[in-house]
Amino acid sequence: MDFTLSEEQLMIQQAARDFAQTELLPGVIERDDAQKFPEEQIKKLGELGFLGMMVDPKYGGSGLDTLSYAIAMEELSKVDASSSVVVSVNNSLVCWGLETFASEEQKQKFLTKLTTGEMIGAFCLSEPEAGSDATSQKTTAIDKGDHYLLNGTKNWITNGSTAGVYLVIAQTDVEKGHKGINALIVEKGTPGFEIGPKENKLGIRGSDTHSLMFNDVKVPKENRIGEDGFGFKFAMKTLSGGRIGIAAQALGIAAGAYELALKYSKERKSFGTEICNHQAIAFKLADMHTEIEAARLLVYKAALDKDNGNNYDLSSAMAKLFASKVAMDTTVEAVQIHGGNGFVKDYHVERLMRDAKITQIYEGTSEIQKIVISRSIIKQ
Length: 380
Known about the structure:
By secondary structure, this protein is of the alpha+beta class. Helices cover 51% and strands 15% of the residues. It is globular and about 80 Å long.
């Protein structure tokens, strides 16, 4: 096994790190306070190729591997998880899903704009009664011959009001259960499509999260992804890759908090010496560093499984489960190491702690990851 990153991957890592420090860090606290979407920063990320990293260059993408994407996600997430989640959703859930399963006409119409940041996408699966239980779709897409009539509500949608295109999972035939679900491409501004108020969240407050309402929305048949009834399979396959992005985000949040805590421990003095020299703090740093490295290896393994054409359902679930726990544990300890300053916004770690929690919830809760993992190992 060679754990050395390639020259290209090191360049991507440095480019993402530089962007995070020069473009994301300034104003990140203010954007969090104001729940302001990082519109300018996302536009620049699109111009630099970060929004279509794994897409073939013929569609405007960067043509990079999944590992490069995970590396970039880690670096961006060290500073601003509200921005990195846009990168994750656009790359993992929207662009990958379209490039892998959409028709050539759909790719030319939508994918080419998504890869460059001309517009961003949203993935619409969760509902008021269908979060972890994704099979219980209440949103319906009734077949009307040349179009579907879409009705229902989607909750907690990232890029809810800023997206230009939405991938909506809806039930067409209730009697067929999950085999009667379809995935539809809905464009912003379609009559009957309404966007609810922005959610007031604990963390990733700059991220644009909304409920979406569909009231007799006409969706052309040519906007269906794949064959009739392919929607649930589309959602599950797409989410497996999405978990790698969120695992990398969790890794970045943890690594960012650790780096801040390490730096602070070398500057803050108590009892006549820097606090890193106290065993109580030194052991915290040792645990944080070890767990982050373990999470990084799990994330890289999942990314390599995907790149090598292996089944990555198990490895992506393990990566997300563990990395999100490390993010939560590490950020809590980072606040503790900062003491009273850790409770103050100016030191960033309290924001990272709030951001960390969502990584244990979205794109499959930690409990769902354990279901995926246990089913997989029992089948072996």
